[in-house]
Specification:
about 300 residues; globular
């Protein structure tokens, strides 16, 4: 274990020795080859949608998961989409990639023999909550007319990805998170650093980098508990702060503080929520209306547990 806790701000520029100390005993999952192939095709000047659809269709397990997700209530239900080609035509490749990333990341981290039986229920609960926050982030982004809902989704899905890895590393990590959410000092990650000499935001940064997320999203993941930037209305109006505001709104609507933190009240939101809404241009009435719409769609009301 490292003698000096690494803060989220330090992690991207940490020395190799510090990085090795942070990750000691933690296996960072790599993206499966199909994700790499799809990312390469998406990066082409003129992506071949048919070739991408074939890549997905050739992976029977992934294709089945994609179709099951698309035909679920989250995407309206009742569509009865039976082919990946039709799914691409109806939803577009960006939406499909969001679904594929969700399924692939969950599979990579849930299929290992190293996961103890005692963690399976908690791990499933975590991934349900991560998917919920990601979908809520898209709804919030759309409400704010934010131009990159796919980035909002990726941040929502990956921002807490360090949590399940630390659950596997530390048997008492659920208690660490409960204490961190109950008594952030001043941030949730600061309490983690005191207790285990690392934190989920740091680990999440390295996972996101391994999965080739854009650099700004990796940085946001490493700093996603830095909500004090919004307090006092002094946050700069830029893309990264907008994404962070979207994430925090989606987290609160999803009740993430209950799932991961085991708390009845969202202390982080109580401290900065009013300023986050002001930054986002949402009144309290706007927020309540948005939350009701999201809950009515079936998101944000699931019962998660750690």
């Amino acid at each position: 274990m490292s003698d000096v806790p690494i803060s989220p701000e330090q992690s991207p520029s940490a020395t190799q020795e510090q990085i090795e100390a942070i990750l000691r005993g933690t296996t960072i999952p790599s993206p499966p080859q199909i994700i790499v192939d799809l990312q390469m095709e998406m990066a082409m000047p003129d992506p071949d949608i048919n070739a991408m659809a074939k890549l997905i269709a050739d992976d029977a397990g992934l294709a089945g998961g994609v179709l099951k997700t698309i035909n679920s209530a989250i995407y309206g239900g009742g569509s009865d989409i039976t082919s990946i080609t039709k799914a691409v035509a109806m939803l577009g490749m960006n939406t499909l990639m969001r679904i594929i990333n969700t399924l692939s990341l969950r599979n990579e981290m849930m299929n290992g023999d190293e996961i103890p039986d005692r963690l399976f229920a908690a791990m499933n609960g975590f991934w349900d909550s991560a998917s919920d926050v990601a979908h809520c982030s898209v709804r919030v982004a759309q409400r704010l007319n934010y131009s990159r809902p796919d980035h909002a989704y990726a941040l929502g899905l990956f921002h807490n990805v360090g949590v399940p890895l630390l659950m596997m590393k530390f048997e008492h990590y659920a208690e660490v998170m409960r204490e961190s959410y109950e008594k952030p000092s001043p941030r949730i990650v600061d309490t983690e650093n005191k207790l285990i000499d690392t934190n989920h935001a740091v680990i999440g940064f390295f996972v996101a980098r391994s999965w080739k997320l854009p650099d700004n999203l990796c940085q946001l993941i490493s700093q996603h508990h830095n909500v004090d930037i919004f307090i006092g209305g002094n946050a700069t109006d830029n893309d990264d702060n907008t994404l962070l505001a979207i994430l925090k709104i989606a987290e609160h609507i999803s009740g993430l503080y209950r799932c991961i933190g085991g708390q009845r009240n969202n202390i982080e939101w109580n401290r900065a929520g009013k300023d986050i809404l002001e930054f986002a241009g949402l009144s309290s009435v706007d927020f309540e209306d948005l939350m009701s719409q999201i809950h009515d769609s079936g998101l944000g009301q699931q019962q998660y547990f750690m």
